[in-house]
Amino acid sequence: MVQTTWIALILGCWSSLYLLDAFLKSQPWSARCYISWLEKTGFSVSVCQFRWYSTALNRTFVRLAQWRPRFLRTWFDCGVLFGLVAMLVSVFILSLMVFNTLTRNTVESQVLTPVMPGVNLPASQISYYMLTLLVCGIFHEIGHAIAAVREQVRVNGFGLFLLLIYPGAYVDLSSDHLQIISPLRQLRIYCAGVWHNFVIALIGVGLLFTYPWFFMPFYTTGNGVVITQVSENTAVSGPRGLAIRDPVTKIGGCKVTCIKDWNKCLAASIKEPSLGNCLPVSMIHELDTSSKTPIDKKSAYIDCCNETSSTHLCFMFHTKNNRDNNYACLPARATTDRPICKFQSDCYSPKMEMSCVYPSVDNQTKLLRIEHGHKPPLLFLGHPLDLHYSVILSNYIPNSLIVPVNLPYVFETFCKYLISLSGALVILNVVPCYALDGQFICQGFIELLLRSTIPEKDVREAIFSIIVLFGTVLLAINVVMAMWMLFIG
C-alpha cells in the first residue's frame, strides 16, 4: 500500500509538471515568453526528467584547472591507476555475486541494491538520499570538467537533472577534442569522476570517525542520553511523559551513560524479575488502599487496586509473621521513591520491620522508573520493548537550548550515506558497460596497453566490444538479482 502511494504521488507530480510545460508552450499568450525564459535560465522539461544547463561555471573550471599544475597532474595520474584497479575489483565482485547465486551459496547482501521510497528507503531518509546523490554527482562531474580543461578539451557546459526521484549532474565535453588527444590524457578525464567519488567516500569515513571532536564544545557525552524524538500516542508521550531534549540518566537502578547502556538496561529489565522498593511494614499498611474483598492468590496476575486510581499500583510483599504473598495497593510514585531492593535482605533495618515490595504484574510487564533531567521521574508500566520503540535517542546532550539536538544524528547519517552512495557509484560507473564511464575507461586502457602489441585497430575494437558486452551482461544480471531480492527474496 505504501509503495503504491509513493508511485502514484511521484507519477502524479511528473505528469502535472509535463502537462503544465506542454500547456505553456502551446498557448499563444505564453509560448514566446515561456520559451524565452527557458532559454535564458537553461531549464528544460521532458518525460519524468527536469534539467538545468549553463555555461556560467566554465570560467571556474578553467581557474581550478590552472591551480598547482604539477599537483593536479599527479592527482589525475593517481585517478588513472585507481580506475584500472577499481575496474578489476568491480568486475571480480560482481562476478563473485553471480557465481554465489548460481551455486546457491549464502549471499548476505547484494553489492548493488535499488533504492526505492516506501520499499527499502524510509520517507524520513529521502532527503538524505537525494542530497547525498546530488553531492556525489556534482563532484563526480566536476572531476571530469577540471581534468578535461587540463588536457585542453573544451567544456561546453555543466548541468543538473532530476530523473523521477534520482538527482544527478552532467558535464558537456567536446567530443572532437576528446578523440584527438592521447589515450593516457583521455584516461585522466574518464577516470576523474570515479576517482573523486572514491575520495569523497574516504572523506566521509574520516568525518564519521572525527566528527565527535567537532561537536565537543557544543555537546556533552558520557553522562546520559538525550531524547531526540518521541512517537505520538504512546505510553511515554504527553505533557507528563518524555519530551525532546530530555536527558535520560537512569532506568530503575541501571545507570545510563550512552545508547549502549540504554539498550543493556532495557534488555536486563526484560530478562530479570522486576526490582522492588524498601518500605516499612507499618507504612505499607498505612498507605494501602486495597479493598478488603478476598483475593484469589492462585491467579497468575493479581490486581488488588481494582482500578481505584491511576496513581496507585498493586504491590506484593512479605512480613515476618506472614511468609505468604501479601498484596497492597500503594501510590506508585511514593513507593518507587524509596530505596531499590532486589531481595528481602536488602531492606534490613534494626529499628523497624522492613519489606521489599514488588509490582504485582505479569511476566511481560515491567515497572520502570526513568530519570530524565530535573523533571519528576517517569513511571513506565508496560513491556520494555514498547519503551524502546517509542523514542529515538542520541549520545550528544546539547549544552544550550540554541544548539540543535538532532545535528549530530543528521551529520552522522549524511556521512553514512556519503560513504555508501559514493562507493556504490564507484562500483557502478567503473564497470565496462555501455553508457557508463567504464565503457570509455576500458576503451582508453585497451588503446594505451595494446596499441603497440596489437596494431590492428579492428582487433582492438573486437576485444573492446567483447569486454564491454561481458560487463554489460554482468551488470544487468546483478541488477536483476538485486530487484529479485528486493521484491521477492
Structural commentary:
The protein has three domains: 2-44; 58-212 and 411-430, no CATH class; 224-397, no CATH class. The protein contains 14 helices and 17 strands. Strands 6, 7, 8, 14, 15 and 16 form a six-stranded antiparallel beta sheet that branches. The protein has a five-stranded antiparallel beta sheet with strand order 11-10-13-9-12. Strands 1-2-3-4 form a four-stranded antiparallel beta sheet. With 489 residues, the protein is of the alpha+beta class. Helix 3 crosses helix 5 (126-150) and helix 7 packs across helix 13. It has helices at 2-26, 31-41, 58-65, 69-102, 126-150, 175-180, 183-215, 259-271, 281-287, 332-336, 384-390, 407-429, 437-450, 457-487; strands at residues 43-46, 49-54, 155-163, 166-173, 219-220, 225-230, 247-251, 254-255, 276-280, 312-317, 326-331, 340-341, 354-359, 366-372, 378-382, 391-394, 397-398. The protein is elongated, with a radius of gyration of 33 Å.
